Structures are given as C-alpha cells and as structure tokens.
Recover the amino acids of this structure.
C-alpha cells in the first residue's frame, strides 16, 4: 500500500506561507494522511507522534548519513567524518561516545552561574528602555555566548560565527555546515599553544582508540568537525527557543503571571514551550529498505521527513495538543529527536531556556509583541522568529 491522500492536502517544508501557521494543516495530515507523499519534491512525511518516534528508532532502515536537508539527500554527498548527526553506526556510535566523554552533564551544570550572569548582562541595560528584541537583543546573544564560552571562542568573534551559521541554515546554500574554512581553525591553532579549561582544549587532549585499534589523539580536522557540529546544532535552535518563549508567553499572559508569582513552575513551562513550538521543526531520514507504517509503505530509496512540530501536537499523545498549558508536564516530546541521535545538547538547551526565562521575568513581568515588526522565518529544518520586538 502506498500513501493515499486527498488532492487538496499540500505541505512542503520550503513554503514559508504554509509554515507561518502549519498547525491546522498538520492536524489534517495526522488524520487524513499520516504518511503523506509530496509529489513536487518527491518525499514522504510522518506527522503522528508514534510514527515519528518509530522512524527515529528504526535507524538501520531509515538512515542519517544521507544528510538532513531533503533537497540534498538524493545527491549522496558524504558529510565530513565526525559530523555524527549525519552518520550511522558504527561510525556514529564511536564519534558520539567520544564527544560525550568531554561534553558531560558536569560541564553543562557548571555553566549555570555563567549563563545567568550573561543573561543579567544582556537584560540590565534594557530595564527602563520601553522595549527590546527578544531574539536579536537576547536569544541570539545568550545562545552564541554559551556555546562560545563552552568552546573557548573569544567573545569579540562570537557574533561573526553566529551570523555565518544562521546564513548557511537560512539560505540552504550548503549541504553541510562548512565553518571549517577559517571560522574556527585559527582558534584551534591558538588553543594548542594556550590550553584552558574549555571543551576545545579537552578535545585536543582526549585519547581514544580509533577504528584501526590505535590509541591516539584527535586530528586538528576532527576537532574542527566536532566544534562545528556543536556550534551548528546548538546556536540557532536555542536562540529560537528563547524567541518562542517571548512569543508564546506574550500570547498567554495569565500563564505568564503564574510564572512570575511561582517561579518553581518555570522548568515545566519551558518543557511545554519546547513541545508547543519546537525550534527544530523536522528531521529527515533516507530509507534503505521498504518500511511499513500505518499510513502505507515508504519505499526503499525515499526521503522521509519526520515532522516533530506535528508529532508534538498529536492528541493521541498530548490530549488537546493545540492548547498551551504550563501545567501539562508533557512526556514524550520529540523536540530533541529520539533514539541514537537524541540531542546531545538537550540538558544545556533546557538549562539555557530556564535561566533565560527566570532572568527575564525578574525584570519584565509583562510584555507585548510588536506584531508589525516581528518576523517569523521558517527554514527547511527550523522554525522561529528572526526578530521579535516587544514593548515592556
Ligand atoms: C532548543 C534547542 C535544541 C533543539 C530543539 C535541538 C534539537 C535536536 C534534534 C531534533 C536532534 C536530533 C537530530 C536527528 O535525529 O537527526 C539534535 C541532535 C543534536 N544536537 Fe541538538 N538541539 C538543541 C540544542 C542543542 C545544543 C545546545 C547542542 C550542543 C551544544 C546540541 C547538540 C546536538 C548534537 C551534537 C546532536 C547530534 C546527536 C547525534 O546525532 O547523535 N543541540 N538536536
């Protein structure tokens, strides 16, 4: 059985108009075409929570090494070794384990006071200003600074790095991030001479057994790839999470008031924001064999787009999924993926989201969005505000 659907049902990740508010369409996809086929771009989509989760678990038949952007996946371009978000086992297992050794929960937890201090530094000058931009004056800076301080990138250069990542994701001009060319290379050389307690230094020193059984250190190129992966995966997504926090809470002032009155509700609120508006909107896989879902068969050789933005609103898993409710305590959100590629930075992203919101609410208990100037910018993998001016 192949995917069946009514002819007026159309979705593609490139259509900015559709993706401005795709939720009514996603509801129809889940009900009418849980396995939807897009003829124009030749890919399948999964929109129900259980199907998306099953696809992420099925990593032997639905592989990651063809890339993440549907337009490039049929080209068979290989990602640089170590870019393990686009690798399959056994390579993926080896590279992920290596990064996990240095990107530890202890390292993440140790960042909290620094994240808080940086949030305060961004927000304090804005008190009494009448307004600010949740993304440009806050989300972008916090996300960029946190990755930067973890890696050991000098603060003065962090903005240039961030802009390059954003541009490459927005314009979809590259099959893979190519920040290696110059952006980080010089810091690696510098760090060799000036070791510190940052992650880049640890990556330069870590010893591991490679696929030939030789114990060695990472090459400069391998360190660069890991650094590029962390920066590419963690910058834009976290900035968008903070942007969505500004938008969703402005739309739900009663719930925002509860957070001001009882800040212990903030971690659950962040989890609900992650469910309701996931910054990483969809992830794709390539089928190396036929795979059968309830809605039909994904034939071998196809691209499958797994829409976490839809899965997170599936009433089967999250009753009344289109309703935002900070008391929901959602279990099983797909915002960070699932299975072997589950986001390595999820704990860091949650920490940033929580601390960023705590510090905002201490200074600004209320705000409204300037809808005339706010710009939502969906791309083929992410969805969030490029700019979100608010009045305070
Ligand atoms: C709200 C913020 C974030 C979101 C929504 C997010 C989302 C995701 C998703 C959906 C995946 C799985 C991709 C797939 O299955 O193909 C992923 C993987 C990954 N993320 Fe995140 N991420 C966020 C923040 C971060 C941060 C802060 C870091 C690191 C500093 C990070 C590092 C990674 C890495 C290294 C992977 C690859 C894991 C693997 O392939 O094994 N992410 N992320």
């Amino acid at each position: 059985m192949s995917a069946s659907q009514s002819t007026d049902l159309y979705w593609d990740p490139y259509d900015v108009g559709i993706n401005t508010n795709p939720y009514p369409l996603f509801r129809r996809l889940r009900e009418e075409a849980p396995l939807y086929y897009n003829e124009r771009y030749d890919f399948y989509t999964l929109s129900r929570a259980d199907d998306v989760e099953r696809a992420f678990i099925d990593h032997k038949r639905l592989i990651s090494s063809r890339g993440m952007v549907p337009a490039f996946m049929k080209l068979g371009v290989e990602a640089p070794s170590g870019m393990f978000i686009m690798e399959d086992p056994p390579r993926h297992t080896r590279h992920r384990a290596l990064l996990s050794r240095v990107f530890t929960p202890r390292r993440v937890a140790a960042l909290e006071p620094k994240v808080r201090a940086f949030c305060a530094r961004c927000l304090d000058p804005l008190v009494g200003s009448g307004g600010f931009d949740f993304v440009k004056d806050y989300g972008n800076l916090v996300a960029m600074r946190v990755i930067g301080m973890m890696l050991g990138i000098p603060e003065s250069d962090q903005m240039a790095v961030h802009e390059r990542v954003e541009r490459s994701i927005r314009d979809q001009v590259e099959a893979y991030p190519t920040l290696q060319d110059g952006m980080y290379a010089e810091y690696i050389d510098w760090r060799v001479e000036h070791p510190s307690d940052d992650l880049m230094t640890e990556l330069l020193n870590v010893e591991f057994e490679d696929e030939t059984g030789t114990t060695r250190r990472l090459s400069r190129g391998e360190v660069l790839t890991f650094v590029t992966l962390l920066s590419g995966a963690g910058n834009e997504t976290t900035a968008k999470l903070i942007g969505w926090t500004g938008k969703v809470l402005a739309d739900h002032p009663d719930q925002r008031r509860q957070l001001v009155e009882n800040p212990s509700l903030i971690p659950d609120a962040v989890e609900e924001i992650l469910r309701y508006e996931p910054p990483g909107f969809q992830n794709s896989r390539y089928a190396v064999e036929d795979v059968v879902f309830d809605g039909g068969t994904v034939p071998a050789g196809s691209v499958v787009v797994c829409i976490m933005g839809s899965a997170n609103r599936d009433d089967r898993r999250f009753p009344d999924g289109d309703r935002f409710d900070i008391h929901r305590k959602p279990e099983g959100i797909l915002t960070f993926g699932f299975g072997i590629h589950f986001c390595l930075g999820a704990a860091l992203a949650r920490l940033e989201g929580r601390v960023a919101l705590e510090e905002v609410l201490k200074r600004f208990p209320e705000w409204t969005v300037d809808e005339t100037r706010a710009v939502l910018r969906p791309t083929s993998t992410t969805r969030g505000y490029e700019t979100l001016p608010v009045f305070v």
